[in-house]
Automatic annotation (TrEMBL):
The lineage of its organism: Eukaryota, Metazoa, Ecdysozoa, Arthropoda, Hexapoda. GO terms for molecular function: (2E,6E)-farnesyl diphosphate synthase activity; dimethylallyltranstransferase activity; metal ion binding. Keywords: Magnesium, Metal-binding, Transferase. The keyword Transferase applies. This is Farnesyl pyrophosphate synthase-like. It comes from Papilio xuthus (Asian swallowtail butterfly). One of its GO terms (biological process) is pheromone biosynthetic process.
Length: 372
């Protein structure tokens, strides 16, 4: 499963369905319903007036796909995009017309998420999604899943081109194209490294690349970048600052996901990890190779990436011998506190306001994470 998919699933499970001081569950449900209604309206308009309309069977199929995936999820990426826009925009510019443009962009983000999920399920040969049979396993889909996903991505482009003026469209499509490129690079790294079993690639640099390409950029940076473009407050310097601030959040999520490898009562969630068996370039694998003696490295290389329970046990014992849990907790605290420090240093009149990232913390439940 891709890093971005694991991240978003964890993000969704902790973010939306709990009451908070500022956003009740009922409010989020209402926002979700309104957003989904807008998505259906936007998609229907584009398909009725675009190239797809010339092939009614295809239009019907894409609507079914949208209903099967997009409308069954909490649209977190869409909500984050709208949230960022509403915080960053000058209140006098929050007109009905501008809010609708933001909704169009947020809609494109959610359809992009569907595109990624469909392909991720196909690549992983997953069986279910949202409690239903995965799209690629439906009798009328099967090998057409690739074409369906491609058409969905083309629909995203049509939505942006139809609703946005040229200046805005060009900037938006550049961000979406970059996002697709980053996801593809991350997928290559995340998939190919376990296949090659080249342990020289198990470095902090490689791990950081995978997180950035498949997790942080898509899930955290892009919604803010899109909002900045909508507000006409975008610049490469500001994009760089966004990346610097949220980098630690993306790393924290992936490190927490990797912590599920232990499955011994110390884990943060009840999920059981399979990174050891799959030979993933995880936080603990990287740190084990950094700290291991030559003899311990040989044990690691002989056992890592095996589904044999005894090999898995050897790796977990090695992690404990190297005291990687203590290292994990120290790094967790460091990144968490550094993120808070960067946010607290922002000025209230800055383009990137503290409020923006505080809302991000609230949405992700970051302010409730364990500090060791």
């Amino acid at each position: 499963m891709s890093l971005s998919m694991r991240f978003v699933r964890g993000f969704r499970s902790s973010a939306i369905w709990r009451n908070t001081a500022q956003s009740s569950r009922a409010d989020w449900l209402n926002r979700t319903q309104r957003f989904n209604n807008t998505v259906q309206e936007i998609v229907a308009n584009v398909m009725a007036n675009g190239e797809v309309a010339k092939t009614p069977s295809l239009a019907k199929r894409l609507v079914k796909l949208m209903e099967y995936d997009t409308l069954l999820r909490v649209p977190l990426q869409g909500h984050m995009t709208m949230m960022a826009y509403e915080v960053l925009e000058n209140p006098i510019n929050l007109t009905e017309q501008n809010l609708y443009k933001a909704q169009v962009v947020a809609c494109a983000m959610e359809l992009t998420q569907s595109h990624f999920l469909i392909m991720d399920d196909f690549e992983d040969q997953s069986k279910t999604r949202h409690g239903r049979t995965c799209w690629h396993l439906l009798p009328e889909v099967k090998n057409l899943v690739i074409n369906d996903a491609t058409m969905f991505r083309s629909l995203i482009n049509d939505i942006l081109r139809t609703h946005l003026e040229d200046r805005l469209y060009i900037k938006m499509i550049d961000i979406f194209n970059k996002m697709n490129l980053f996801i593809a690079i991350g997928q290559h790294l995340d998939t190919m490294i376990p296949i090659t079993k080249d342990f020289s690639l198990f470095t902090q640099e490689t791990y950081d690349k995978i997180i950035r390409y498949k997790c942080t950029f898509y899930c955290l940076e892009v919604p803010i970048m899109l909002a900045l473009v909508l507000c006409q407050k975008d610049s490469e310097a500001t994009f760089k600052r966004v990346s610097d601030i949220v980098r630690d959040v993306g790393a924290l999520y992936q490190m927490m996901n990797d912590f599920t490898e232990f499955g011994d009562g110390e884990t943060i969630s009840d999920k059981t990890g399979t990174d050891i068996q799959a030979g993933k370039c995880s936080y603990f694998a990287v740190k084990a190779l950094e700290r291991a003696t030559p003899e311990q490295k040989e044990i690691f290389k002989a056992s890592y990436g095996s589904w044999d329970p005894e090999d898995v046990k050897r790796i977990k014992n090695l992690y404990k011998e190297l005291d990687l849990i203590s290292l994990y907790k120290a790094q967790h605290n460091l990144k968490y506190n550094r993120f808070l420090k960067n946010v607290n240093e922002l000025q209230s009149d800055d383009v990137l306001t503290p409020e923006l990232f505080l809302k991000l913390m609230e949405a992700s439940q970051l302010n409730k994470w364990n500090i060791y």
